[in-house]
Design goal:
alpha/beta; Growth Hormone, Chain: A; Rossmann fold; 2 domains; seven-stranded mixed β-sheet; four-stranded antiparallel β-sheet
């Protein structure tokens, strides 16, 4: 067999930095998805992942340059790629065995930093070593063209990162599970480097046999970890935005079906009655206090489609438009949560605020339920601008009903009290209902009700007090007396200023 020419070696070198550059961005993007089920999809999670990966890469660049000067060998370069592949595969093992343990001990503020370092620092560090190493090896073909060679290496590495970024968001995540993406990326690096080491005749038989045994062992370990039957769930899949699970269990004495978004309950339905299991979801009907026969209702957040389904069954004349950004949920609701096809239901796979902004229609009610845990919420549904947009799309006497979560503890900084202040600026005629206890400072669901008119609720009205529906009958008891709080000391939440994760983390730190 003829020796490989220097030109071919240079091409393989550039191909290698392209592939490893793509691997860096795939790992960085997937890292956020790995941590989100445990710490929420918050700014803390994103900042921790980006900061950890950049720190690891910078240190890798520094030490990789020093190592390449001392040992400028192809065998070492491709060996580092081989090791990097194994380390990426090992992320899956650590995720399956240790991440839940770590999340039990650390808050959403510091947990993502510690977990990011634990899972992603070393693989990112070894990948960072490769760029200066490749420049050193590429320099062998012409020592006088170091500038041009450095530019080529950095170009192909960065181009790989760009491709890896788009590939992750537009192809891999929508079609493959997080575990499969991590394992696939790791095995791609392992097989690529192993093949080139063989091609360049850089492996002896003993090392070759050891690597093959290691590859097979990790493959079997991956299959064992990720193919264990979890009989808790009747459905489990990585969605575009979070991990989706559906589980049947007994709750409050009833057989109940739950929908999980990541690790948090999102929706639940009693299987013996098709009734909503969570009390906070039953407040959707507050619009009836101002309009008994609504024609059009806009629902932001579908999940199991419990609220749209209830509205349709409650009135035969109401049309419901639903905005749900996760593509899987509509079909899952029909298959697992008894949602029926109905011409009065329009479903859009689109962000609710975006859909509302480009929609010129007005509605009798807008219902927003986009939170999938107390510590992870879409920021753009918490701001003054969103509430103003919603009010502009309400008819006279139209109602905005929103589900929020937090503590009524009047401390210096409070998410829910800042949110109440913001809401009242847009809806001066507004009410706030504690799902559990209006006098409790423990974090709970708080229902916001804003009316697009001066019409008030008469809590002494016999139709309300004597209602057979406990939501209406207990409304006075659940009503929060906002006058007890000095809202002037709290910040308004706007698109420009929305430190939601910081405020929420204080509740979690105190109570959990």
């Amino acid at each position: 067999m003829k020796d490989i020419t220097q030109g071919t070696k240079d091409s393989l070198l550039l191909a290698s930095v392209f592939i490893t550059g793509a691997a860096v961005l795939v790992v960085e993007i997937i890292a956020t998805r790995i941590l989100s089920p445990y710490y929420g999809n918050t700014i803390y999670t994103t900042s921790s992942v980006i900061g950890t990966v950049l720190a690891a890469l910078s240190l890798g660049y520094y030490l990789g340059g020093m190592l390449s000067d001392k040992y400028p060998e192809e065998r070492l370069f491709y060996g580092i790629i081989l090791i990097s592949g194994f380390l990426i595969i090992f992320i899956n093992v650590l995720d399956s065995t240790f991440l839940q343990f770590l999340s039990n001990f650390f808050s959403i503020s510091y947990g993502p930093v510690i977990s990011s370092v634990f899972l992603f620092f070393i693989p990112s560090f070894t990948l960072g070593m490769l760029s200066p190493f490749a420049i050193k090896l590429y320099q062998k073909s012409s020592a006088n063209e170091i500038g041009g060679h450095s530019g080529k290496v950095l170009f192909w590495s960065t181009l790989g990162s760009i491709i890896g970024s788009f590939l992750s968001g537009f192809v891999l995540i929508p079609n493959l599970g997080v575990n499969n993406i991590i394992i696939g990326t790791g095995f791609l690096l392992v097989l690529w480097s192993f093949a080139l080491l063989l091609l360049l005749k850089k492996l002896n038989k003993e090392i070759m046999l050891f690597v093959l045994i290691l590859i097979v062992s990790l493959l079997l370990l991956f299959l064992f970890i990720n193919n264990k039957d979890d009989h808790r769930f009747i459905y489990e899949k990585d969605g575009v935005y979070e991990k989706i699970r559906i589980e049947d269990r007994v709750w409050q004495g009833h057989p109940t079906r739950f929908l999980y978004q990541d690790k948090s309950w999102s929706s639940a339905m009693f299987l013996d009655s098709d009734e909503m299991a969570f009390d906070y979801t039953k407040y959707y009907k507050l619009y009836e206090l101002f309009n008994k026969n609504p024609k059009n209702i806009f629902v932001i957040g579908g999940a199991a489609y419990s609220i749209p389904k209830a509205i349709l069954s409650r009135s035969k004349e109401t049309n419901v438009l639903v905005s749900e950004i996760e593509p899987e949920y509509y079909d899952l609701a029909k298959k697992y949560f008894n949602l029926k096809d109905d011409p009065r239901l329009q479903n859009f796979i689109e962000d609710g605020r975006r859909l509302l902004a480009k929609n010129e229609n007005q509605y009798d009610a807008i219902i927003s339920d986009v939170y999938y845990s107390i510590f992870s919420m879409p920021i753009h549904f918490t701001t003054k601008e969103f509430f103003s947009l919603s009010k502009n799309h309400l008819l006279e006497n139209g109602a905005f009903i929103g589900n929020f979560a937090g503590s009524l503890d009047p401390k210096t900084e409070s998410f829910i009290l800042s949110e109440i202040k913001t809401f009242k600026e847009v809806f001066p005629n507004s009410y706030f209902f504690a799902v559990n206890n209006a006098d409790s400072s423990v974090p709970q669901n708080i229902i916001f009700l804003g009316i697009n008119s001066d019409k008030k609720i008469d809590f002494n009205n016999k139709d309300i007090k004597n209602s057979k529906d406990p939501i209406f009958a207990n409304l006075s008891e659940k009503n929060i007396n906002i006058d007890q709080f000095d809202l002037s000391s709290y910040q308004e939440i706007t698109d420009d200023f929305s430190p939601i994760e910081y405020l929420v983390s204080r509740d979690i730190k105190k109570f959990y």
